[in-house]
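Recall the central idea of this unit: under ordinary conditions, the amino acid sequence of a chain determines the structure it adopts. In this exercise we apply that idea directly, starting from the sequence alone.
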Amino acid sequence: MAQERSVEHDRVRSIPLDKIQARVIELLETGSETAVGDAVDVMISQGAYHGASDIHFEPWTDIVSLRYRLDGMLQQVASIPREYQPKVMARIKVLADLVLYRRDVPQDGRVEPEKTSCGRPMRVSTVPTVKGEKTVIRLLGDTQHLFPLDSLGFQPEVVAGLRDMISRNQGTLLLTGPSSAGKTTTIYSLLQEIMRLDASTRNIVTVEDPVEYTMDRISQIQVNNAVEFDFASALRAILRQDPEVIMVGEIRDTETATIAVRAGLTGHYVISTIHSGTAAGVFSRLLDMGIEPFLVASSVTGVLAQRLVRLNCPECTSAYTPSPVLFEHFNLSKGKKKFFRGKGCPACKGIGYRGRASIGELLEVTEFMGQEILHRHTTSRLHEAAVKQGMETLEQDGLKKVQKGITTLDELLRVLPIGNR
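Accordingly, the structure predicted from this sequence is:
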């Protein structure tokens, strides 16, 4: 009974990151019938309690590495002896309803909230490597984990521009940025805004892979490639159901792009994501996918490029002098301006950063920008045109946060795309 109470204590209380390894190995070494299940639950639940977005189980030569992605950066948490690898991987597969004996092919699954003590839905991905299966768990959420648009860190002008765009009856709003740039969080915040403005009279439908947050009063559809139910086929189906607002998780191919762009011209408001380095780069990406320039210029109302920057820990922030290389890179003069960064303390686990905020550049497709798109200008030319009409770049947004002392030039350099000016 004492052992059961101790495990239950682990599940409801946070364990310091540097103590997780000892606790996991202690549980595994008990050899009880529930040892592996208890250890896996502790590894997952502690990831959730510490705010991890992803949990990585990676086989190395002598160990299985347990790493949490905290504030966008992977941190080593525990080294599990390789002898426990088969049982740990099997337990995760059971939770995700995956095929236990298939270790030679990638598998994807989902863990329902009631299956772990942290009560969070999860997406599980396994891939075979030469040292065994690597498993990554993405922690999903529900409406209690969503954020208001005002709280994401964007400049007030960007928030106002987004609100203006989503208030329109038709058009296409595209979000772009690399993985883990906060695009999904922003989209759900936009959906909350739409619901707040006009939830009772608008038919809102999403097509996602996977559904990361469950929301009431919205019809959420999860694609299933195993039965050829992909983004394009889901889009074709829902267009027959009279939607006003359509959210497409990602534009990955020409067919999905064509349907989404055309829907934005025919009385629907479409929100989606597409991979590109900058806001202006989205137009080149769409044109390269074979979408006609007149469709892009007529349907797309705006593009938001975004990144997530880590914020200085408020408990240990102090003044510092950045490297001369950073001054040169950002074209800054060494004046009397002060710069700040976190030194590292228990509150931020010695990292110096705690929490993240968005930086963004919002490109509105005006008549002027539409003409530039119709002429198939290069990405750099479109970027210059957007700046000319008043767009604030990712770099400018980030430098404002640096000047306020809430992040650093080092962090800004880490997240910005090369050549973003």
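The chain has 15 helices and 17 strands.
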